[in-house]
Amino acid sequence: MICLVALVVLGILGIFSASHRALAREAFDCVFRRLTLRKCTTGFDKKMRMKISGKFINTNPKLSRFLYKYFEIISWAFTILMFASLIYSAAALYNLYVYGTCDLDNPQNCVFTEGQMVENKPVVLDCSCTFPIDECTQSQIYSCSGSEDLCDCLEPHCTG
Amino acid sequence: MNVEKIRKDFPILKRKDDGKQLIYFDNAATSLKPEAVLDEVVDYYSRYTANIHRGVHKLSQEASEKYEMAHRKVAKFINAKHDEIIFTRNATESFNLLMYGLYNQKYFSEGDEIIISAMEHHANIVPWQFLEKNAGVKLVYAELNEDFTLNMDDYREKISPKTKLVSMTHISNTVATITPIKEIGKIAKDAGALFAVDAAQSIPHMKLDVKDINADFLAFSGHKMLAPTGIGGLFGKKELLERLPPFMFGGDMILSVERHSSEWNDLPHKFEAGTPHIAGGIGLGAAVDYLSKIGMDEIRSHEKEILEYALDRVNGIEGITVYNPMDAEKQGGIVLFSAKEIEAHDLALALDESANVAIRSGMHCAEPLVSSLNPKGLDRASFYLYNTKEEVDVFAEQLEKIVKTLG
Q: Which chain B positions have a beta carbon within 8 Å of A68's beta carbon?
């Protein structure tokens, strides 16, 4: 199962690092074989298991043993998490495209929601700014949200 | 023999990964290359690149001379004549050359037998299987004793007037047994059979004299004896090579060509069709020079010392099983082992990842034997002239740690 997660992770890493590209290719081969209902014969899962657990043999033998013994279960957990995450992200993107927000129930939780910056104004008020909020530009108000220090620090810029 | 000085000749031994010094124990697969060999190869490509035997210009003359000289060096190294050494890609190609030659010569008749041992490399099994299927020849195996030495009684029992070829390893690439090659050859000759030797694991590690062992043919690889990959050789007695038809056809292996017929070139060119691996051949010559300078007896003695130490250390680890004769006099510098509850590839990967120790795992191109010992494969640590006891210590300590952690 690790080949599926590895393909995604190594595929992204492979864009920046040549050393990960070979492993990504191996992962792809493994996934392709699984998809075409053939056995993954590359030994990729074993290689990944030892590459990961081998790193800890000298520093943390217990962790190394745990990873070695339960690698298949850990792989399954990561695969399920990856698919759950992918489904959630796809739904969010769809909502954003169709309804203008990625979270239909609580639009204020989605930073991409249209007009979200204006709606954030009440949050700014929580940080006890010492200057009139109305005089600040929208981006400055947004910057000082949640931190008193930042509010003070931004004051000279806001008064102008 | 000054190992520390020798180690300086191998640039790759300076390599570190994650701060850990490389420990190379996969010498039975291929050896590291000294600067002397690398320099010769670079010198050919940077100073006198040319095709051989074809040009009259200086570069071609120089390249031809060096390439021919390499044949002479290898010949001298094993006490043969220069025209009895054919350069091939490796021992596998050498056996294929021999097999196809004998096949085309119609040397075998239906019902004839070929004897090999139960510890052969695939290179000395698969070509003969071709003859089983295509020439009606029977492949007969001489079995091993319990201590992995060759069962000579079994061999004597199996040899018969039907035996037309005995092809045997000198040192096994797995259990590392040194076979009594001279005696094996004598028995083969007395039975009227041809005698071929797989010397891929012995030529790099000990003194070998083809006249002394009375071999008709002897195959070896250059890359296991410090030379570049892609170069190897086949020794054959001149009168036998002359009778053997060519393996490949084309340029350089002919004296003259007419529209419908050709005349074969002299030995060894008759078997070296086309442009050969010139740089590899020259590199092999340099490797032979390097080994000769140190002395093969010195190398064997050093390896025996390392092997004894390694056998002792590895065999003492709980959960490890060793598959060797356990006697440095009877075996080459290889420790074949397995760990309880850890698969061969896992163990090799763990050693590589945690201590930068390179060993080999799997079937070692000797599947009939290895799979009978462990269907999931075995691990192999193999030593050479540049290895030290300190490296064995690191390897053994890490092996013990891995077995305790993952086993």
A: 346, 405-406
